[in-house]
Amino acid sequence: MAEPPITNDALFARAQRVAPGGVNSPVRAFRSVGGTPYFVARGFGSKVWDVEGNEYLDYVQSYGASILGHAHPAVVAAVQAAAGDGSTFGAPTEREVLLAEEIAARVPGAEMVRLVNSGTEATMSAVRLARGATGRDRVVVFDGCYHGHSDGLLAGGGSGVATLGIPASAGVPAAAVSSTLVVPYNQVPALSDDVACVVVEPIAANMGLVPPAPGFLEGLRAECDRVGALLVFDEVITGFRVARGGAAQVFGVQPDLWCFGKVIGGGLPLAAFAGRRDLMTQLAPLGPIYQAGTLSGNPLATAAGLAVLGLLDDTAYAELATIAGKLAAGIAAACHDAGLQVQVPVAGPLLGVFFAASPVEDYEASKASAATGHYPGFMHGLLERGIAVAPGAYEVLFPSLAHSDADLARTVEAVGDVAAGLAAG
Ligand SMILES: *Cc1c(COP(=O)(O)O)cnc(C)c1O
Predict the structure, then answer these.
(1) Does the N-terminal or the C-terminal CB of the chain have fewer CB atoms within 10 Å?
(2) Which residue lies with its CA nearest to atom 11 of ligand 1?
(3) 222 φ, ψ to 5°?
């Protein structure tokens, strides 16, 4: 007798018995949009297929970890070749040097690099370095930005005003965020001289897409310099995505430290923090600031990262921006024609969708867009039409280099259908 066909529902039921929420990262559970997640069986290029054989045009792309599209032949070959030579040693390897050299060459000012395994580790370690180097404790972050799930950076903010952090999760001690000040995005805060660092997403992409207001990043740089605080760009999404040198290159503002992730692992667990030589040399084993990792600089992950960066030249970035620009214009027009009010901000290869009458510049406005309640219908309407966008209103769309004009046209047409339904209520 044949095995019964596997279904998303059956797999999700099993998953929920052995994994909290059935997932290994909360947004994947579809809780904020309802319904059952599709379990991916495989992906190729712009598409993924679930365990039932349904095909989706994929704008999730692992939340930006995949920029060439899925299973790019160059990445597959690099990882396969690396795997045959052994997957981890606990001794340094050549590709760690090559990847650090590649990062330093692309990002002026990122003179030295430490590889880690996730964006969370990168930001957590950068903050430790900033505190160790300045001898100060206070950290300033912006409401609506995301810097991973370490205690000190899981701080919730107030409504459009500067507040000392309140724990944004159960299990985060008040003490862990008592030195974290949360301020509104796109306003330069007046800093006191006890600030170790200001951590910012130079293009915010975890509250939908919120580009920096003119002068915001320059203002942060000047204010940090005024009080001797370090400026940390969390470029886990924007790094190697918005340009060769990331957002620092696009806006011409140089931070003291960078955090990278997503794109540089080529779909494998790899992230990094980097910065000025005089700061990075304070890390162990050269200096007193401790940081370590059994799998850091992993041979498979560095192989994937190098393969991806090797294909990301200026032509690739121009192409990505063209793809995102076409998609954004198409989505905006389709929604407009359907009578649905949207904002579709675009920043290079990134784009977001807000249900709002005017441009969204901070978390308050982003929350108001989510509060319209349109997102779940938008997301599920697209999913029914074979198009996957993230199951959360605060995520952005990640078109990849594999998204074709035909893919974009199909997306715009589906958005038009879905928008008409939403506008009709
Ligand atoms: C995804 C993300 C992180 C966390 O990275 P993980 O690899 O998920 O730990 C940190 N900062 C930003 C801006 C991110 O988008």
Answers:
(1) N
(2) 147
(3) -65, -40
